[in-house]
Amino acid sequence: MTLRMPIVAIVGRPNVGKSTLFNRLVGERWSIVDDRPGITRDRLYREIEWTNRRFVVIDTGGIEPYPEDEIAKNVRAQAELAIDEADVILFVVDGQSGPTAADEEVAELLRRSGKPIVLAVNKLDHPKHVERRYEFFAMGLGEPYAVSAAHGTGIEDAMDAVLSHLPAETPEREAPEAVSIAIVGRPNVGKSSILNALVGEERAIVSPVAGTTRDAVDTSFVYDGTPYVLIDTAGIRRRGRVYERAEKYSVLRAKLAIRRADVVFVVLDAAEGVVEQDKHIAGEAEKAGRGIVLVVNKWDLVAKDDKTYDRMVKTIREELAFIAYAPVEMVSAKTKQRLVKLLDLARHVADNHALRLSTARLNEVLGEALALNPPPSHAGTPLRIKYATQVGTKPPTIALFVNDPERLHFSYERYLENQFRQAFPLIGTPLRFVVRASKTARLKR
């Protein structure tokens, strides 16, 4: 039996140090930190343990009392969703600036939630500044705790107060292992729209402005009895176009998201086709050894005839020939056309990615491949492949034991891969080979 952990949401107006405090609690630089307001936009979740209590902490974007632009409105909506989810709210204010009208507006929002509130007065970095916390008694939220997220001081007292309000962990049913899916692609191809359409709620901010999503965001949900974790990521630009420090972190975070996923949805723009950066992004997923699905979004914008689908698939196969094993699905996040198929496809690819192959069947297929097309000789000495065995999963990895590893040319290795793919369910997953000298070959040396 698993336990549902309590949730603590870190909230406040922009640029009061919420993400710095989040990183301090998590123990690593996970949330992007910058000295400009508005860097955190989506809500980030991390499980932590504090004095033997486990709970989930959420970092949120800064709440603006009267947001004017669409992104600011969405950031506020994300923070409000985090407040609804939370058991305890850690309200962060700026001790250097003192109470502001914006702080009062946020405080009123939090009072209406009815949730326990712990007030953390941040940026009190020097002992002589600690007395500034008393100004915040006027907010009527109880004891203001003087903290410095940057230096780690005062946090223990604030967290003791948080822990005093945490409910006990509650039992949850055991669930099968979740399929984790990283949604990656160039900026503005519709990654967040796909996530929202799949989950059925405004879980990630959607905006037509390229570069809206900066952090990698995890969203858990269950579909048809299978748990999934969707990781929405910042759009990956070409390296020469990554100007801002915060955007560099975003691109790095997207690459890390690829490496911790089971399956990567590489999102392409149907209206633009495959561009060079799409190849780079798909290459990152292939290099990481993840399962891959090519998701062609905005299919609703393409003028179609009875050959359009086939032409699009043919073009994608030609441009991305190095991942010919990846299935292609045409979708529209806007109309939700074929979106549900993506989850079934992801589960299928994840199963293939974790596939274990019978050694007997492997060698049977290997024997048939060798008989059909024997390895070429080099300098009169033929390559002899003695046997094969699986040595890893995620992706499936096969060890080939040969008389001389240097004689196995990549073209013959590709031939063997094709033979194994015909024999086993390997759609969507890379297949890796490890070439080793057989025991008899080593003895001869």
Structure report:
With 445 residues, this protein is α/β, with parallel strands linked by helices. 33% of the residues lie in helices and 23% in strands. The longest helix has 16 residues. The radius of gyration is 26 Å and the shape is elongated. The C terminus is likely disordered.
Primary descriptors:
about 450 residues; alpha/beta; six-stranded mixed sheet; 19 strands; about 25% strand; disordered C terminus
Principal-axes geometry comes out as elongated
Q: Proportion of β residues?
A: 15-25%
Number of strands: 19
In the predicted model, the low-confidence regions spanning at least 5 consecutive residues are: 29-41, 206-214, 245-249, 441-445
Mean pLDDT: 83
- Rg measurement, Å: 26 Å
The computed structural class is alpha/beta
Strand order of the largest sheet: 3-4-2-5-6-7
Structure annotation, total helices? 12
Helical content, roughly? 25-40%
Q: Largest sheet, described in full?
A: 6 strands, mixed
Give a quick summary of the entry.
By secondary structure, the chain is an alpha/beta fold. It is built from 12 helices and 19 strands. The strands form 5 sheets. Strands 3-4-2-5-6-7 form a 6-stranded mixed sheet, sandwiched between helices. A 6-stranded mixed sheet has the order 10-11-9-12-13-14, with helices on both faces. It has a 3-stranded mixed sheet with strand order 17-18-19.
